[in-house]
Write a structure and sequence with these properties.
Aspartate Aminotransferase, domain 2; 4-stranded mixed sheet; 2 domains; single chain; binds pyridoxal-5'-phosphate; alpha/beta
Length: 421
């Protein structure tokens, strides 16, 4: 092992052995013009890089570490599970407990199946919807990200947006021929050829964009009229906005839902679920095939169960309070500095757009990202030891480990950062 690794040389070595030096594109910091820090360890609200620098972390594995990094209860559960074996290829009690825990919180999920990534969850849910309806077409919204499966990359948010890609090379035209992309926050026409409408009920992969009043309700009505299924991609919002996610917050019940991030407590785990009549089409009960060697992995289910168990009402109140405080303080800082900014908050999710007016869709999110202020602000904050998401298209994720002091420190550092721009 090399002693005294530093970010620059690790990044150079990484770029030799993996494209862009990273295992997932946004981590390369290419859209914010910086060298990524290589994490050595993390605890609570903080990450330390290989050079020993410490950052107040608002990425938190894109919200997966909702309790903060290396929460003692999660560490203990994962270690205890590892001692019992890391993967069996046979069912476990923990999978039953996790599915039951999820269903108690999200009653629309009469049945669930565990998978290992959000990408798998959305891809499989769409297959189930197509199998159920016997239709091929799907409708998604520009700026929503549903993972990197072929059919869902069209008009994608997150990394697709970060890198300014219209979709992706390597995706056959036929693979997206049945994907219709509509503008977020407008109810599109849904006809009887549509199998399902997939939506982030709160869009958190183009910055943060809340659903306009009536949008989710309108989708529900339009789907019902056309006999199409409504699929809420709650990979970010699930178990984060409250026990029942966005569907509970907005009171709109989807037919199918997908979860990830928080549900796995920072380990590779995700799930899709919904109506029993749809889910019972899955193999081995029905004809829709879906499977996974590591699905329901024992380390991941142990982490997920621990996290869900700790997310009580007090935790959600505290999380939303932190996000609201942070947004209010940052808004004050930007106003003081005369910088046009929008700092939307939904529950414990926060967004940050350098824009004159509220951002309601992907076009507006792109216009705001294009002014380059976010990238400069990101670098100025990173220099001061605050790790914001390395892209203007991602949400900001305060965790339960972020204290009121951390939030105040963030605002103070933002004041100093903004003064240098
Ligand atoms: C992160 C994300 C996904 C993809 O999940 P992966 O685990 O990265 O495959 C899908 N949908 C939404 C809304 C996400 O935020």
């Amino acid at each position: 092992m090399a002693d005294m690794a530093d970010n620059e040389s690790l990044y150079r070595r990484a770029c030799e052995v993996t494209p862009g030096g990273v295992s997932s594109p946004v981590r390369s910091f290419s859209s914010v013009g910086a060298t990524p820090y290589f994490v050595a360890r993390a605890e609570g609200a903080w990450v330390w890089d290989v050079e020993g620098r410490r950052y107040l972390d608002y990425v938190q594995s894109w919200g997966a570490s909702i309790l903060g990094h290396a929460h003692p209860a999660v560490v203990k559960a994962v270690c205890a599970a590892a001692v019992r074996g890391t993967s069996y290829g046979a069912p476990t009690e923990a999978e039953v407990l996790l599915a039951e825990a999820a269903r108690r919180r999200v009653p629309s999920c009469e049945m669930l199946r565990l998978v290992s990534s959000g990408t798998e969850a959305t891809m499989s849910a769409i297959r189930a919807a197509r199998g159920f309806t016997g239709r091929d077409r799907i409708v998604k919204f520009a700026g929503c990200y549903h993972g990197h499966s072929d059919a869902l990359l069209a008009g994608g948010g997150s990394g697709v947006a970060t890198l300014g890609l219209p979709g992706s090379a390597g995706v056959p035209a036929e693979a997206v021929a049945q994907t219709v992309v509509a503008p977020y926050n407008q109810v599109p026409v849904i006809d009887r050829e549509v199998a399902c409408v997939i939506v982030e009920p709160v869009a958190a992969n183009m910055g943060l964009v809340a659903p306009a009043p009536g949008f989710l309700e309108g989708l529900r009505t339009a789907c019902d009229r056309a006999g199409a299924l409504l699929l809420f991609d709650e990979v970010i919002t699930g178990f984060r906005l409250g026990p029942g996610g966005a569907q509970e917050m907005y009171g709109v019940v989807p037919d199918l839902s997908t979860f990830g991030k928080v549900l796995g407590g920072g380990l590779p785990l995700a799930a899709f679920g919904g109506r029993r009549d749809v889910m019972e089409l899955l193999a081995p009960v029905g004809p829709v095939y879906q499977a996974g060697t590591l699905s329901g992995n024992p380390l991941a289910t142990a982490a997920g169960l621990t996290v869900l168990g700790l997310l009580d009402d007090a935790a959600y109140t505290m999380l939303s309070g932190r996000a609201a405080d942070l947004a209010a303080m940052l808004t004050g800082v930007f106003e003081e500095a005369g910088v046009a900014a929008q700092v939307p908050v939904v529950g414990s999710l926060m967004g940050l757009f350098f824009a004159d007016s509220p951002v309601v869709d992907y076009d507006a999110a792109r216009a705001s990202a294009a002014n380059g202020v976010y990238a400069r602000f990101f670098r100025a904050m990173l220099d001061r030891g605050v790790a914001l998401p390395p892209s203007p298209y991602e949400a900001v994720f305060p965790s339960l480990a972020h204290t009121r002091d951390d939030v105040e420190r963030t605002a103070d550092l933002a004041r100093a950062a903004i003064a240098t721009l």
